[in-house]
Each structure stands twice: as structure tokens, then as C-alpha cells.
Specification:
The structure is a single chain. This protein has 15 helices and 14 strands. With 374 residues, it is of the alpha/beta class. The chain folds into 3 domains: 1-68; 108-297, Rossmann fold, CATH 3.40.50; 310-372, Orthogonal Bundle (Arc Repressor Mutant, subunit A), CATH 1.10.10.10. Strands 1-2-6-5-4-3-7-8-9 form a 9-stranded mixed β-sheet, with helices on both faces. Strands 12-14-13 form a 3-stranded antiparallel β-sheet. Strand 4 (148-151), helix 7 (157-167) and strand 5 (172-175) form a beta-alpha-beta unit. It is elongated and about 80 Å long. The chain starts with 6 loop residues before the first helix and ends with a strand. The mean pLDDT is 90.
């Protein structure tokens, strides 16, 4: 009997039913007093009196067992250490409740409960080393300041942002455009597990749901909706990050875009956002000055990791420390000389040099060599 469903089970079933959007689900809950169990007991006439609900939707609700195997879903959740956090729970991201079409619940793996403000860092899967280094740097610096970094676990910019936050012991959340049991891209399995252990994995989709053209925009609205601000690092004009930025604008959130080369398609979307009114971002100071938190609302910086080298720009990764050490004594070194001294492959060296430049620890000379800034 549907009346025997617990409140949590009723939320879970409603969330999984096909062809019922979040706006309709939230309207149903509001009209019926907020108890999801009422949706299954009131009958078709009452259901169809709610705007947006017709015979097809009322029939889907009445025959929900044909569309969703609740016992199987609960078994999968138990095996995967997954919870379903409803919009009423304290662990549900607070800002997400404010958007026009919030999910009625989110599947969650990991223990982080979003006690700090969130900032999303998004961009292209086909990113450049410059874009990856910039996303990682912003992830590091904002995580150090106590923000939770939110992104979508995709290749490129998303991966760099998550890795940056994790590298300094910060919090990060990955919002998936598929079921929480599906790891995409598969090469991010280790990253998925690290985020689960130290942050949170979120999805509004049931187990087994594959990503499609509908699910990714739905994911992007959650990414934007749960965050104070969205930073777009690299994207072409048709990229998914542009959808996230559009949602952020519609939801009244702050939008930042990182400029890039005028001859690269991965910068075209950012330049369009800047033309359309997004704030040009070159450092975290740009976002901190605009957010302008009161002292009592500013997130607490995370403690430094013990044993990491200290520089005027903060703590360095192992690669950054190895490269920066080569410049002691005022050395001026070419990339070839740095490769010989550090043993780093060319791609890792290039990314590391970019990060050290962004941290204003080294500078590139006109002849192509690098030197430490004084």
C-alpha cells in the first residue's frame, strides 16, 4: 500500500518517477501540505487540481510500482553507503532551496554537510594547460579560505578544480549528471573515491540513470544553485559551462569569467560572458571583494598541512617546491634546464611553471628563461 510508505520512502519514489519535473513535484508537495505520502493517497481528482498535473502524471503516481523498484533502490543505497537527503534535511545545501526548481532530494555519498559557503568552478572538458593550472590554483586558494569547491567531476577544468581543493585538505563536492553509482569519466575513479572520503558526491538521479542531454543541464542548475558564485575558467560559446553560468545569472548568483587568448575557442565563451556583464576574474581577490562577507559569516580558513614548504604565496605542491628550489641564488633557467634538474616531464613542468607564475613566484623573461621574482 502506498499509505505504508515512510516519509523518506515517499520522497525517494517521487524523485524517481519519470516525466514529473521538479517544479511540478514541489507544487504538489506545497498544495498537499508538504507530506509526500499524501501524494499517493489523495486520488486522481485532487492530484489533477494541481497546476501542471494531468491524467498522465496522476496515472504515473498511482502506478508508481510499475516505474520504480523501491526495495531494489534501498538495497543499492545500503550497499553503496548512499543516503537520500531531502530538502527538509539540515545537510541539504541551503542556497539550493532558494531556486525556482530545486530537487526534492539528493543522493549523497560522503559525510560533508555543506556548513561552509560554496563556490563552483566549471569549464571545458577540452581544456588547455593554462586553464587547468588556473582552475587548480583557484580551487587551492578558495579551499584554503574555507570555501567548498563545487564542480561536475568531468575531464579538464572540473577535475583540476576538485584536485586543487583536495591537495590542501579542503572540501569539494562533485555533482553528477547521472546516477551516483556511475563514475564518468571512468578514469576519475580515484578522484571520485577521494571526494567521497573527504567531501561529498551528489546526484538527483536514481541508481543506474545514464547521462543524457536532459540530465546534464539539470546537473548544471544544481551546481549553480548551491553556490554563492560561479567561476567559468574555459569554455567555448556552446559549452556546458555556459549553461551553468546562465543558471547562475537566473538564480541571482555572482558570475566570474577568466579571460584567455583571443585565438582559442576555449576562451570564446568566457569572453562572451565578460561582454555580457560577468566579472572578469584574474585572482581570488576579485571574488572576495565582491562577496564582501561580514566577519561573522566569513568561512574559517582550513589549517595548513604540516611539513609543506612555505613561500610568500602559501604552501606548494611537491612539483612546485622542486621547481621553485631551482631558482635559489637568483638562477635564470630555461625549461630544458629545469627538466634536467628536476626530472619532470615536459607537460608536468609546463603546468608547474604556470602555477608558479600565477602565484607570482617566478616570471618569464623575454628570452624564454624563467627567474624568481624578488
Amino acid at each position: 500500500m502506498s499509505s505504508e510508505l515512510t516519509e523518506q520512502q515517499a520522497f525517494l519514489v517521487l524523485n524517481a518517477l519519470p516525466n514529473i519535473g521538479p517544479i511540478t513535484l514541489n507544487r504538489l508537495l506545497e498544495e498537499l501540505g508538504g507530506d509526500p505520502r499524501e501524494v499517493f493517497t489523495v486520488g486522481p481528482r485532487k492530484l489533477e487540481s494541481v497546476k501542471g498535473v494531468g491524467p498522465a502524471i496522476s496515472a504515473t503516481i498511482a502506478g508508481w510500482r510499475e516505474h520504480f523498484d523501491l526495495a531494489r533502490e534501498e538495497e543499492r543505497m545500503a550497499k553503496a553507503a548512499t543516503t537520500f537527503v531531502t530538502a527538509r534535511a539540515a545537510a541539504y545545501p541551503k542556497l539550493l532551496k532558494e531556486i525556482n526548481d530545486p530537487p526534492i532530494g539528493l543522493y549523497r555519498k560522503g559525510g560533508y554537510e555543506f556548513g561552509a559557503p560554496c563556490i563552483s568552478i566549471v569549464g571545458s572538458r577540452r581544456s588547455t594547460l593554462y586553464g587547468q593550472a588556473t582552475a587548480k590554483r583557484f580551487g587551492i586558494e578558495l579551499a584554503r579560505l574555507g570555501f567548498c569547491i563545487v564542480s561536475g567531476l568531468a575531464r579538464g577544468i572540473d577535475t583540476a578544480a576538485h584536485e586543487g581543493a583536495l591537495s590542501v585538505g579542503g572540501k569539494t563536492a562533485a555533482v553528477l549528471g547521472c546516477g551516483i553509482d556511475i563514475i564518468y569519466p571512468p578514469e576519475n575513479l580515484a578522484l571520485y573515491r577521494q571526494i567521497e572520503a573527504e567531501g561529498a558526491i551528489l546526484s538527483e538521479f536514481p541508481f543506474g540513470r545514464r547521462a543524457d542531454r536532459q540530465s546534464f543541464p539539470m546537473r548544471n542548475r544544481v551546481v549553480a544553485g548551491m553556490c554563492e558564485a560561479t567561476i567559468v575558467v574555459e569554455t567555448d560559446v556552446d559549452g556546458g559551462a555556459m549553461i551553468t553560468a546562465r543558471f547562475a545569472g537566473e538564480q541571482g548568483r555572482l558570475i566570474y569569467a577568466v579571460p584567455g587568448r583571443i585565438d582559442q575557442t576555449t576562451s570564446a565563451g568566457c569572453h562572451q560572458l565578460i561582454r555580457d556583464g560577468a566579472t572578469l576574474m584574474t585572482s581570488v581577490e576579485d571574488i572576495l571583494s565582491e562577496l564582501n562577507y561580514l566577519d561573522g559569516l566569513r568561512p574559517s580558513p582550513i589549517p595548513d598541512k604540516p611539513g609543506a614548504p612555505v613561500t610568500p604565496a602559501g604552501r606548494l605542491t611537491a612539483d612546485e617546491a622542486a621547481v621553485f628550489a631551482c631558482f635559489r641564488g637568483g638562477a635564470e633557467l630555461t625549461p630544458d634546464a629545469l627538466t634536467a634538474q628536476t626530472g619532470l616531464p615536459a607537460d608536468r613542468l609546463s603546468a608547474t611553471l604556470m602555477l608558479l607564475e600565477l602565484k607570482r613566484l617566478i616570471a618569464k623573461r623575454a628570452d624564454g628563461a624563467f627567474e624568481a621574482r624578488t
